[in-house]
Amino acid sequence: MGLKPFLTQIGRWQLATGIGSGRSIVPNAPLWSGSQAVWLSFVVLAIASMTVQPSELEAQLDAIRQEAQQALAAATTMEQLEQLRVKYLGKKGPIPQVLGGMGKLEPSDRPRIGAKANEIKAAIETELEHQKTTLQTAQLQAQLEAETLDVTMPGVYHQQGRVHPLNSIIDRVLDIFVGLGYTVAEGPEMETDYYNFEALNFLPDHPARDMQDTLYLPDGNILRTHTSSVQIRYMEANEPPVRIVIPGRCYRRDTVDATHTAVFHQIEFLAIDEGLTFTDMKGTLRIFLEQLFGEVPLRMRPSFFPFTEPSAEVDLQWQGRWLEIMGCGMVDPNVLKAVGYDPEVYTGFAGGFGVERLAAVLYQIDDIRRLYTSDRRFLAQF
Q1: What domains lie within the chain, and their CATH numbers?
Q2: Statement: the pTM of the whole predicted model exceeds 0.90
Q3: Which residues of the chain carry a pLDDT beneath 50?
């Protein structure tokens, strides 16, 4: 509010040019006393001090902009930029403080000062983003220079591993039998005497048990001597027809030499259905061995296994000599009875072989103990 409007509102006052001089600035107004004139002069000075000129606020805003630009240009880290952002653009920054004085302006001047403040704020924000981009680019460039990779240096060679010969044989055999419609089955390596011997028609005092002497555990269980125990477990849990192939690790008390180990791997297959004959088994064996070895001469020799009757050994002619490759036979009726199958209705055949022996034949390995040495020079050949 200007001085004249204020004087108009409070009335026609009389002011002296000096205190108590008696000279009036408002014509025809009564003279004030000296004390009244002094009091009124203080009021006039206070009101005059509350008045702000637009040019003053504009000058303050320009000074803020210049100061902010200089501070931002001098910033060298992202932390300093953040501090400057809070200082100049925060709620307690200088721009809000300047805008707090707009209430002292004439109404007609306020829009111009508000637009000026927004312009200054936008300019500071633009300068802040520009400096932020500059610092980030410089930081990335410094990191790239510090982490420069010399592509002319020779690389570090890491030798790749290979599939172990035993695993390779197991995978190939399983693929063949799965292709013939068989299902892969597995079972525990720690077995009971019942599943490992009794249910497979091994009588308690039969000499056949001596051939498969194994490791006995304190609780009376044993480490299985063959994967045939899985046949019993599977048939107990499933009704015919059955066609399964069983890979696994087995244990026997054998003297370790070039052809024997106390721990070895075995694969067995089992088929149970109505009307299966020895001819079906022979055809299955021929298809399997031809896919593994190619077309080679085969022969079958009579043999004995407690769980098959009749039983046979299978030989193949390989590189000019006959090699025993596996055992097989028709499932003994006593085994079928042990799992609850009617031997008058169902028949079946089974066979099995050692994976180490098969690997020795296919890969011409002279000593199966080499398979367990983990010698990379040896394994790299397969």
Answers
A1: 3-145 (no CATH), 165-379 (3.30.930.10)
A2: no
A3: 1-49
